[in-house]
């Protein structure tokens, strides 16, 4: 699977994409996509009769980057899809209701915050050494092609901890080597951020937290990049940090440090956790990744953190000099590699993952279609049930037709 292109800031970023909405009934083409399966459930303070969940929700066909993540507001029957430089809002029938455009950075994974009714997503501007959580007010997304910078539908919070690790001069030569895996720099191999999810604090203190997972460069020649790194934040007071998205003058308003920093030993993966999701039913966390390439690891595509076990303080694997940190445990189920001790599964979820409860999950499928000679990206959410079987623990609830996958 090819890694999606990362954003470049200002002139270095991708050109701003003018996205034409494909609206049902308006004569424009919409298309489905391809993927696999998703994880367990989420904490839901839902009405007694939330909107029924369809077997598939089409996220549309867009001239954009490929599908990165999904989030659902079940109270209002709304779905959100992120496409690298575009956010799309639909109803549960897949009808587009609005979109946010104009991102020149990299918009990644999404999650819906049940407590404040907003959508949170990872947002990177690597050339500017700036990493944010983007916060979307879904109620204000009321039309297509709303500009991210000028319409006030999105605010951003800066994550200084990520910047420190991304820019860390690990070899002490005084040079920042930039956005590249071919360097000993970037602490823990940090390439930025991607997976985000709301769930309980790992240490059982402080209630619900936003968990943010690092992107990690694929590099087979170092050992300090074999962990997934996760930060936790209490967002209840984040209003004081939130600022409008101003891409030509990136701000640094945000918490100086996370409430907690944790490590999960999985072996190196290609760009870290692509999609992160908490399953309230099992209490576990699902981490969908692009497979790693190190020969000493099984290189699974799905890892599950054991929510029944608290973090244990210990030596973070691969760090020189030795470093103590809070270590998380993988669920001891699924496939197992005795040599590394790593557990996991082979499944989809890298393009989007939502836990729905009752063993049901939306797993994203991403693909491409040709429209008038132009390649466009497609995305859809497909309902699956968790079986726990190996190698793939997800099974579609109803058969779905194949689509052309993302190259």
UniProtKB/TrEMBL annotation:
Signal sequence coordinates: 1-31
This protein's UniProt keywords: Signal
Alphabetical list of InterPro entries matching this protein: Quinoprot_gluc/sorb_DH_b-prop
Superkingdom of the source species: Bacteria
- The identity of this protein, by name, is Uncharacterized protein
Task: Specify the species.
Answer: Streptomyces scopuliridis RB72
